[in-house]
Amino acid sequence: MGEVQERRPEPEEGQGQGRGRGQEEAPGGGNGGRFHPAYFGMYLALALILSYVETLIPFYVGIPGVKLGLTNLVIVLMLYDRGASQALVLSCARVLLAGFLFGNLSSILYSMAGGVLSLLCMAGARRTGKFSVYGVSMVGGVTHNIGQILVAMAVVESVGIAFYLPVLLVSGVVTGALIGVAAAEVRKRLPRA
Question: Taking the model in full, what pTM does it have?
Fold first, then answer.
C-alpha cells in the first residue's frame, strides 16, 4: 500500500525566509503576534522567579518604591521577541500572580499601574525606531515610577507625594539603563524563534 503525502501550500512572496509562515516581523516588533503557549509560560515563570528574587534582595535607599526592577528584563525581552500585546498580557499576569504570591492588594494596584503605563510607553518608544533597547528600558523604568506615583497621589488624595518624583525618576533611569544592558546582552545570545 502506498502512503498518501500531504501537500503543503507554497509560501507567499516574502515568506519562508528564516521565519515560519505567519511569523513576519510586525511593525510594532515581535513576530507578528503569533502566540506560543510554551514561550509565554517560560517568560511568565522567569518573571515570577525574578519577582521572588527581588523580594529577597535587601535594596533600600530610604525612598519608598525604589526597586531594581528585575522583572522588567523579562518584559523588555517579551516586547522585542513577541510584541507589545503579548508583553502586556505577560506584564498583567505577572503582576497578579506575584502580587498574590509575594505581595498584597495594594502592591497589585501600584504594580499594575506602573506596569501598564511603562509597557505602553516602551512599546511606543520602540515603535518610533528612535530608541535602542537601552532607551526603551529607561523609558520603562521612568514611566513605571510615574504610574506608581500617580496611583499613590490618588490613594492618599494629596499631590504632596510628588515630592518623591525626582528621586524616583533618577532611579528609573539608572535601573532602566542596567536592565537595558542586560536585555541587550540576553538578546544577543537568544536564538531567534
Answer: 0.78
